[in-house]
């Protein structure tokens, strides 16, 4: 998707004229970056429409929800079928319409409830911007910004509108726009593109283009079609099923009507009702609704646990994850850092040099607090000598150092391997000694040449080692133990020293934490591919490598979740199957992720995974109930067409069976707890569970119709007997799917049986249930007894066929893999 967006960006630069929406004219007085806009200037711009309103609403409107639930393809089909039944006077067979209306209402109500809850949370945690107005700093929502506002951007901030740097210097990553991860330095007069994010530094920038005028808004409009097309496997499978059924019901319905009316010479009314019954049986009217409602309810449940969903599909994806990539800081440890101490190296001469604490204090004072490391260093080293830096280079996650140049020389602070470079082996033992204690070690040293931008030249003489540490989260060991029990492999990916990260991972109880590697030694894609499968802990990882690790794991067939909180995590978060951000981290990471942990508490992840499993497993279980009816109706329609018989069921009878063996129990089961690990593909699992029961229904009803015709049993009696047979098989499969039974499931099963018996006796006229003749009763008893063994043996047969297929598929895969390796 990034590549496609980059292509759009390039095409727009080369081919399109600048788009300028119609705006009211305003007087563009350029504000001073110290003062910003004054109140009257802000009001003037707001009245003229020069605001930063998003081009896309954050969620559907209530009107959109009602429209999408009412005007569906299947509702159109049901409306046409209803009109046909009214035309022939078959009002009794309209019993399916209240169910359809109720389903639609439930869908609308649940979706509006979910929208209201999520909108409130989104509003509370919407992106904010620090703006200078009337000479004072204020934090406001990004959509409240106006053109010419002076905004202060720091490391971690995402650029919310096209802007021009007025003061300061920042390093910017425009990868979300161009696909290129290089950091670009922006100084006074340079343009900041909306959608990019600040890697380091701080600046005051004046907003030049806002709202629909900004670059990211145009890309958003282009990308919307792509974004809408991205669906989880479950929703994608349901879409495929609905599309196939939607196409199939039209020719099958026409064939059944033509055969019944023209060939079997049935009455127009009988032909229409038979055709309608067959079509209703094939339509999974409640299945898509069930999935939508279950996902909406899950989103509300997660919101109550302070987890904000940007993307509904992530519920299912996270439930299927088998590899979890985590960063050390913010995930295993608290998102705070403290200096544990420092020690001078042999190169520091306290007799001839200023106090070491003062030198480091001057250095730290020159830097902005754009990351927790520098904030910790500034807090610890508060002693100053009074010197001022003439030139600084802010910390970069790519180069892993920062520098400051004073009158008496240049100093650098950063990761030992990146600062000392070829001299690192000389000091490695001393550094490893501290790293083995779980400390993150930084080297502070003097440089004999002034650093030129990002290029560190000359020799660095280490003056001190600074030891920092993040406290391990109390819940971390318990959380990682849960993931191990669930078969989820944890990979720790960090920019720190691999030995330090390994020690921290051990304390957090991560299995295999002793298996670590320095990512700086991984130079080829093949080395990375092998390393991600072999090692658990990765140190000295660059932002580009994080992305490569995620791609390599996905290439190995793993479903990958990625947690992150920094700007250097954004690309990997975008590429992961499921992305999780900490709210305490950067704006860019939070906006790029599908899930945001609003309290930055990683210990809530098990409950999020369980919620995903509950939804997918329960929908999968309930979907098989719907599919039994659909497969049965499809096969019975084919049977009727081939053997030139009229479809034996009436619409009201199909509605009765659907209500109490499928619809009602499916909704109760979909909201039940379910902790089972998800295996296999959604549609395959559902189809294989439904197939034995559907075949049992077809064999039982088909045989009943044939024997009924042989013994001259009335078609009305056969319809009633067929309805009762379908009910028996329906409750049998419901009992199997509900295993293991509990009080709720027993109550649902018993309640549905009682309700069906009540409707069949007291409301028998409404649902076309009649008294059966003695011959029909005998046939019904025989076939009722036969259904249980038929269902049992068909279940075994389908299971054996699947096992055989899996073995053959496995042998083919092993042979292909061996051939590739050879």
Describe what this molecule looks like in 3D:
By secondary structure, the protein is α/β, with parallel strands linked by helices. 53% of the residues lie in helices and 14% in strands. It has 27 helices and 21 strands. An eight-stranded mixed beta sheet has the order 8-21-20-19-9-16-18-17, sandwiched between helices. Strands 1, 2, 3, 4, 5, 6 and 7 form a seven-stranded antiparallel beta sheet that branches. The protein has a six-stranded antiparallel beta sheet with strand order 10-15-14-13-12-11. β17, α18 and β18 (537-539) form a beta-alpha-beta unit. α8 runs parallel beside α22 and α25 crosses α27 (774-821).
How are the elements arranged and paired?
Layout: H1 2-15, H2 39-48, H3 62-70, H4 73-87, H5 96-124, E1 128-133, E2 136-141, E3 150-154, E4 162-173, H6 175-178, E5 183-186, E6 191-192, E7 197-209, H7 215-229, H8 233-263, H9 268-282, H10 287-304, E8 307-309, H11 314-320, E9 323-326, E10 338-344, H12 356-366, H13 372-380, E11 391-393, E12 401-406, E13 409-414, H14 416-420, H15 424-435, E14 440-447, E15 460-469, H16 476-485, E16 489-493, H17 498-507, E17 516-518, H18 525-534, E18 537-539, H19 543-555, E19 560-564, H20 570-575, E20 578-582, H21 587-592, E21 595-597, H22 605-642, H23 651-670, H24 682-710, H25 715-737, H26 743-761, H27 774-821
Parallel strand pairs: 9-16, 9-19, 16-18, 17-18, 19-20, 20-21
Antiparallel strand pairs: 1-2, 1-3, 3-7, 4-5, 4-6, 4-7, 8-21, 10-15, 11-12, 12-13, 13-14, 14-15
